[in-house]
Design a protein that fits this description.
This protein is mostly beta strands. Helices cover 8% and strands 63% of the residues.
Length: 225
């Protein structure tokens, strides 16, 4: 899953400054939403199985389910990580999402840079919908801070900006799709199993109608084989 551990790499002062700015931007969106803002509450159950194939390759299977008032969402993600070195990991993934009003299939390419407790992830998605002129291209930029609490427990906080670089319909404009903040507490219960609880807040700007904030408590279950 998305939770990343520190790898002991030295974290330069410039990275500390960049991480601070990256975290601050999404919180500004949440602190000063539009006057007319809708809010809803969802629940997310996410799980993952990571299989170490070799020293550099790891395969992932990650189903998740979200319960929402406007209709549930089910997602199945399969991914392959390639660890280039101690601080750079490249990933390719295929995602199937089942939801109303239209299902979609996504291809993802991402690079994750890890410096001590901080990880920067840059992801590109191509999304094919059941109905649409062309695939949507969405850019996702995330920064995450992870802190061990005990030898078997850790906490993480992240902020992510999701941007539509190419809309589904011709003539539509590029736009900010979502801003996400997330906090997680995870406990390793065995050598192969970890469970966590957390919160995800999602701010969705919507042109011509009220913006939306979604509050999502979540449970994560992860196995590593």
């Amino acid at each position: 899953m998305d939770l990343l551990c520190s790898r002991g790499t030295v974290w330069p002062p410039a990275m500390r400054a960049l991480a601070g700015l990256s975290f601050a931007f999404p919180f500004v969106w949440f602190a000063a939403p539009a006057a007319a803002t809708e809010e809803d509450t969802q629940f997310r159950l996410a799980s993952g199985i990571a299989v170490t194939l070799s020293e550099r390759f790891t395969a992932h299977v990650e189903p998740q389910h979200r319960w929402r008032a406007e209709g549930d969402l089910f997602e199945l993600r399969t991914a392959l990580d390639y660890a280039v070195n101690d601080w750079l990991t490249l990933t390719g993934a295929v995602v199937y999402t089942e939801q109303d009003p239209a299902d979609d299939i996504r291809l993802q390419q991402q690079a994750t840079l890890t410096f001590g407790p901080v990880a920067f992830r840059s992801r590109v998605e191509q999304r094919w919908y059941d109905r649409g002129d062309r695939p949507v291209i969405r850019l996702r930029q995330r920064v995450q801070f992870t802190q061990p609490i005990t030898p078997r427990a850790r906490a993480a906080i992240s902020a992510e900006l999701l941007y539509i670089a190419r809309p589904q319909e011709r003539g539509q404009r590029e736009r900010v799709d979502q801003v996400r903040i997330e906090a997680t507490l995870a406990q390793r219960l065995s050598d192969t199993f970890e469970a966590g609880i957390g919160y995800r807040g999602v701010f969705i700007p919507r042109a011509g109608q009220s913006d939306r904030i979604s509050h999502t408590p979540q449970v994560t279950l992860n196995w590593r084989l």
